[in-house]
Amino acid sequence: FKVVDKSGKTIQTNLTSDKDGKVIVDGLAPGDYSFIETQAPTGYVLNTDPVHFTISAESEEKPQLVIASDNFVNYQGSAELIKHDSKGQPLSGAIFKVVNESVKVIKEGLTSDKVGKVAIDGLAPGDYSFIETQAPTGYILNTEKVDFTISDKEEAQPKVVTASDNFVNYQGSAELIKHDSEGQPLSGAVFKVVNESGEMIKEGLTSDKDGKVKIDGLVPGNYSFIETQAPAGYILNTAKVDFTISDEEKNKPKVVMASDNFINYQGSAELVKVSDSGEKLSGAVFKVVDTSKNEVVLKGLKSNSDGIIKANNLKPGKYAFVEEKAPTGYQLSQETKTFEIVNESENKPEMVKVGKFVNRKLIIPRQKSELPKTGEQENRFLPISGLAIFIFGIYVTFKRQKLKNK
């Protein structure tokens, strides 16, 4: 301590409390004075509150010792933290430790109470951090350090330092983006989420117009998105999409992207066009009919140079290839080739191989040359002979007429 007069002038310094906590100064002239602490005991906060006292100008006999204060207190610091969930509700059961700036553990096992409060006292001046060591059940451990400082001096009793009034434990969230095979978002796909034991966590999660499926409120652990209903006209993709909610994160965890391209496919089928000798035939034209509705869904499908006809973008169902035009020089076949596009597949479904479709060559009938029967040959030449005689008669008549004129 030091002692100052009422003008603030230092009268005496380096006054140290003894083992009984006493600080004594003597040799003071009458007047008003103050004790002022200049250095606190080790591990305590300096109390800057001045302690005033007066030395009387008169006294009967020897003046008595003036007691300036019989309870001048040095305090230690205290701090607290309030624990909440993401909706602002208090969380009990979170466990913390407090470390100093050298990361030495000062105290551990500090547990949040029913109002979410974690408190520590008995702290010397210095810099400290609250560190969560165990999250409340069902929440992600928040590894963010919450720093605070115990001041080295205070006037009278120091206030409790509020390190944080909203230290949040979060739960996990995840999303999946649903597309078709061309990268366009698909709405209307329905999913469930199961944990690693196969236990249902949530169902009826539906992709929105952007193809997004989202779930939140997940405790740390391993999970899977499983499609339970494909968008209309698409094949159910039975592939599981696994993801993990980490058991610790610094502050608010990011949404886990389980998949940004989970695809629903449509079906496809392939037919090979051949002759009856096995030659690949191009130029055949087919249509595809939905046999359940007797409805044409694709037409104008032509076989290529390898004889292949492909039908794409087919929704699940039963179909048939029907020939509309045969290759040049071949007979149109009345045969149909049926096939089925399945309702579900793990990831991309395989092309349905319908098999070979055979065309037979056209048969052009040859004309027969007929020989005349017996007695027919003379009859055939009668008209020709008559015509010759007729022409000869005209010639003779013309000649005679010419001679008469001479």
Give me the secondary-structure topology.
Layout: E1 2-5, E2 10-12, E3 31-36, E4 46-47, E5 51-55, E6 77-85, E7 95-100, E8 105-111, E9 117-123, E10 126-134, E11 141-142, E12 146-150, E13 153-154, E14 161-169, E15 172-180, E16 190-195, E17 200-206, E18 212-218, E19 221-229, E20 236-237, E21 241-245, E22 248-249, E23 256-264, E24 267-275, E25 285-290, E26 295-302, E27 308-314, E28 317-325, E29 336-341, E30 344-345, E31 352-359, H1 376-405
Parallel strand pairs: 4-13, 6-14, 11-22, 15-23, 20-30, 24-31
Antiparallel strand pairs: 1-2, 1-3, 3-5, 6-9, 7-8, 7-10, 10-12, 15-18, 16-17, 16-19, 19-21, 24-27, 25-26, 25-28, 28-29
Protein name: Putative outer membrane protein
Transmembrane segments: 381-398
Keywords: Cell wall, Membrane, Peptidoglycan-anchor, Secreted, Signal, Transmembrane, Transmembrane helix
Descriptive report:
- By secondary structure, the protein is mainly beta.
- It folds into four domains: 2-55, Immunoglobulin-like (Sandwich); 77-169, Immunoglobulin-like, CATH 2.60.40.10; 172-264, Sandwich (Immunoglobulin-like); 267-359, Immunoglobulin-like (Sandwich), CATH 2.60.40.10.
- 7% of the residues lie in helices and 46% in strands.
- The chain has one helix and 31 strands.
- It has one helix at 376-405, and strands at residues 2-5, 10-12, 31-36, 46-47, 51-55, 77-85, 95-100, 105-111, 117-123, 126-134, 141-142, 146-150, 153-154, 161-169, 172-180, 190-195, 200-206, 212-218, 221-229, 236-237, 241-245, 248-249, 256-264, 267-275, 285-290, 295-302, 308-314, 317-325, 336-341, 344-345, 352-359.
- The strands form ten sheets. A four-stranded antiparallel beta sheet has the order 2-1-3-5, with no helix packed on it. A four-stranded antiparallel beta sheet has the order 8-7-10-12, with no helix packed on it.
- β1 (2-5) and β2 form a beta hairpin.
- The longest helix is centred in the last third of the chain and has 30 residues, at 376-405.
- Residues 375-382 and 402-406 have low confidence and may be disordered.
